[in-house]
Amino acid sequence: MRRGSDKRPQRNASLMPMLVVIALAAIWLMVSYGTDGRSIDLNKASVSSINQNTDQLIVHILDVGQADSILIQWPKDHAMLIDGGNKADGSFIVKYLEQAGVEQIDYLIATHPHEDHIGGLPYIIQKIPVRKIYMPKVTNNTKIYEDLLGAIKSKNLTINAAKAGVILPLGEDIKAEFLAPMSGKYDDLNDYSAVLKLQYGQTKFLFMGDAGILSEKEMLNSGEDLKADVIKIGHHGSSSATSDEFLDAVQPRAAVISVGRNNDYGHPAQSTLDKLIKRNIAVFRTDEDGIVTFASDGKDIKVGTTRNSEK
User: Fold this and answer.
1) In whole angstroms, what is the distance from residue 4 CA to residue 259 CA?
2) Residue 89 CB burial class (10 angstroms; 0-12, 13-18, ≥19)
3) At 124, is the pLDDT very low, low, confident or very high (cuts 50, 70, 90)?
4) Residue 308 pLDDT
5) For the chain, which domains are there?
6) Partner residues linked to 22 by β-bridges
7) Which residue has the higher pLDDT, 81 or 53?
8) Is the dihedral of CA 269, 273, 274, 275 positive or negative?
9) Distance between CA 38 and CA 36 in Å, rounded?
10) What global pTM score does this model have?
């Protein structure tokens, strides 16, 4: 059932049983590698689950309404958090991480200093130990940004620059590199977004933050290999991102749009959806599917969705 507005009621821990073994809706995405290394089958299953397998990379695209927050877990109990939703999402994200078994965030990435990406981070930083923080070199004159800096300072953490070419040393068989931002100055704060490409074995994920067409053009002109099996679409599916040229370079088999129900922005844009449909890309949306979870063993990817009963 769709809600009448994007304002979410308070979640409570009793609604969170999906976190250690995640109950999934009837969708599986199996990625297998043929002669071109990138073939895909989209199958249906009645009921299934994704276990927190120590040999898997697990990507959770959280349902935080018109905002972004992504939890990534990989072998040996490592975790990364990309963005922290709006301020009101902080407690929900902390509960989700705790019930997913996250005791420490190895890497926390704030893609850019808009409230719908950093709002919950001050609370999260106070509640869960963080090893390293990465942010683009740009500031914002807002109270929530000041709160974020205050939380970072209170934990004696140092901000590392998130920019093209920076590689995160995540461990064996897993690679993570920032592809953007590529410039030092943009007119639009969204184009400062830290874009991360993650590879686990043969599987690849691309997380776009709110990066727009200008940032996409810079990545295209750089000559970087942009191909990915799964893309988290930029800027909530806005028409200001996800150009035809960029999609053709990425060649994703699945796309996730983090977006709020009945939001005031008209996201996702129909033009963006049309581009994805035209290319036979499987589309998942947090406003319709809830939390979207991918599990990769380095060769195959499974995906499922689950929604809290209040939604």
Assistant:
1) 14
2) buried
3) very high
4) 56
5) 55-304 (3.60.15.10)
6) 50
7) 81
8) positive
9) 5
10) 0.87
